[in-house]
């Protein structure tokens, strides 16, 4: 194989400037860091906040719908639940209708922590929305949901 450049540098710049996947990844990482920093005082990451919030339902959900909402496979969801379960924020229970299934219950401690975390999330989100004031946020969310 020769040392010849097969793809010109201009192509790299074109991809950098046009690739939606790259821009979405960069934005996701920047948002994740921002929310991680904001939620650090209550001992949560943005992913843990989203997971706890996804369990804030009238009845404990099964793993499948939670994994689907968070765009995770069940194995990844199980790994993400373990530290929350160890902290007493979440309980994983057998489904009484199907003992093979698992239901995910937010504990009282989990609800208390989520109650502390929500105002932090809301304030951080308001700052992000203000930073993007020139963007139609409903269109942005709709576009992102269409891709998800």
TrEMBL record:
On the tree of life, the source organism's domain of life is Bacteria
- GO MF term set: DNA-binding transcription factor activity
Q: Which residues form the HTH marR-type domain?
A: 17-148
List, alphabetically, the InterPro entries matched.
HTH_MarR-typ, MarR/SlyA-like, WH-like_DNA-bd_sf, WH_DNA-bd_sf
SUPFAM superfamilies documented for this protein: Winged helix' DNA-binding domain
Gene Ontology biological process terms, A to Z = response to stress
Official protein name in the record: MarR family transcriptional regulator
Q: Which organism is it from?
A: Shinella kummerowiae
């Amino acid at each position: 194989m020769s040392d010849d450049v097969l793809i010109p540098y201009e192509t790299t710049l074109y991809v950098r400037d046009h690739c939606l996947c790259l821009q979405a990844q960069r934005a996701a990482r920047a948002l994740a860091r921002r929310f991680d920093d904001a939620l650090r005082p209550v001992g949560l990451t943005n992913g843990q906040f989203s997971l706890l919030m996804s369990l804030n339902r009238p009845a404990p959900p099964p793993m499948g719908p939670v994994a689907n909402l968070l765009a995770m496979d069940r194995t990844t969801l199980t790994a993400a639940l373990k530290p929350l379960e160890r902290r007493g924020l979440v309980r994983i229970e057998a489904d009484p209708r199907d003992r093979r299934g698992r239901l995910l219950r937010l504990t009282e401690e989990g609800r208390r922590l989520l109650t502390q975390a929500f105002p932090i999330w809301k304030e951080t989100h308001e700052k992000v929305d203000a930073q993007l004031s020139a963007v139609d946020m409903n269109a942005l969310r709709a576009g992102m949901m269409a891709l998800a």
